[in-house]
Amino acid sequence: MLSKPMLNHAMRIGILAMVACLSSAGSLLAKDDDDDDRQQEQERPPQVLKQGFESTDQILSDIERAERGPKYSAWLVESSRFLNVPHRAFQPDVGDPAFVDLPVNIGIIKAPNGDITLYDSGWKQLAYIFDWNTSCCWYGVRDQMKAIGLDPDRVVRIIIGHGHWDHSGQLSEFPNAVLYVQKEELKQIDFFLDYPVRFNAGHIRAVNTIDPLTGSQVGPPQQACARSPVCGYPPQTVQEILGKVLAGKAKIVDGRHEVAPGMIIHPAFRGHTYGSQLLQVNTARGQLVFGSDTYSSWTGIRDWFVANIQQTDTIQQFLAYEKCYVLTSKQNSFNNCVSAHEPTSYTAAYPITSNWWNIPGGNCSRAAELTLANGERTHVPASPDRTPPASCHSVVPPHAIHP
Amino acid sequence: MTAPWNRLLRPKPLILGAVLASLACLVALALNREAGIGSSPTTAQRTAEPRRPALTAAEEQYIRELGPIHGDVERSTMRMSLGQIFYRTQDLSRAELGTRVKEALASYQAAETRLHALEPPTSLRSEHLEYLSAVRLFKESAAEVLKMFTDGRDDHMLVAYPKSQEGSNKIREVGGKFWPHEFPPH
Prior knowledge:
The complex is a heterodimer of chains A (about 400) and B (about 190). In chain A, about 25% of the residues lie in helices and about 20% in strands. Chain A has about 400 residues and is of the alpha+beta class. In chain A, the strands form 3 sheets. In chain A, strands 1, 2, 3, 4, 5, 6, 9, 15 and 16 form a 9-stranded mixed beta sheet that branches. Chain A has a 5-stranded mixed beta sheet with strand order 10-11-12-13-14, covered by helices on one side. The longest helix of chain A has 22 residues. By secondary structure, chain B is mainly α. Chain B has a domain of about 120 residues. At the A-B interface, strand 1, strand 2, helix 5, helix 7 and strand 7 of A face strand 1, helix 3 and helix 7 of B.
């Protein structure tokens, strides 16, 4: 028989244990594998950061976890389009056709309560479009949303797949939205800004520095991003991230993170950049996985080809593909992997984007309805404009500096 | 009965027929292309097709001389921005942030001096002034952030931010014109 004080103590311990158990079940934190870290340490592939690693068991359990959340509606809009990119520069293993047009896709995810999450935020560097003269169809994402019947003021968060300029622009257009970015993404920019030349006798340099060996400038105009381990982050883009941080509207994530019920961030470090991240979303057509440039090419995921190699470890890109296969294993498989630059976007060849239309007044940019949650009406017009790209005439928007 | 067919098999009608068939084929191909029936994705047309005019020797020299200054300004701005981010996330100490901001301020001051030493051609005068105004904004922004190390108030970063943001927008626009390949498709 237990005495009364002992029973009291036992009850208190039990209540504490229950609270701890419930609170840990409610959040999925980056370092939630701390308990079995020693075991994970042995199982992780070499050169993989702890917070960047997820086991297949964890990913499988994330399917069940997300399924307990609400179902979301989702669309893609095309922020702009790179024209006539040499195909092998994009996908070294694929050269047919020789040149391709690459859309820059933004994911729009709507919760049943009307809150909207953006996955990536497109670009805003208009001089680039005008002066390099190889892009078309830019249109501001707020206006795109309005044109397809979505309220940009309901955007509560922006999750950037990585921090490159063409995926993290327009952050300041959504002052109330909370930005989600991986700490590793920011750390690597900082490190490579002052790449320690002692590592390699100076042959690899930070962009826009002078090569002490040759006296020539690394970076433009001679070499663009060549010989630079980090490129693609203009001060303007980093400034916008700073703006979010200073305004208290940023969550610097360190690995796995449950954003909301039914919406989970998965790290894909070096799947494209050092701190790339995927977004799993629970929908009526199963788990969607948005991949930004880690999933640059959907056919690359389908056929197991690498794409858009930047600060990419090709093994990590394949492991990120594998995450999509696992997360979508119950329904639709790789058809639910959502790509940022898939050349066949907005055609039947990329099935999830086949329900597409030209955004009204959207400068030839396109939208696609991916899936609808219960109660969400379709946003595809009754008579959608599906004028093919070759017949659509885009214009250059006004910008500050003209040639 | 066979006379009309014999006439058609003569060389002239045959050539005319072949020419007409070729023309019809070309029209069909053009219509097919316009309708976008082809299997591979096609290219959007841009109504305005601006081509950057060839640079004069003086313009090329100015842009070449501005390049290293631009590199220093960009990296200083990035280091200062990231420094503030890491300070807010408690990954960088106050002293380390102070060092970064002081270095950035010195870099902007040096950039301003170097810019004054440049002689832009008349055609690039407005871009030169735009760049100079951007550097001044960065300088003012850094000076504002530095105040937090004297009065202890971190909200100087908030006051400083719009200036550095405007400066970043300006150098991105000028950079897009002078170094269009600086940030290729990613």
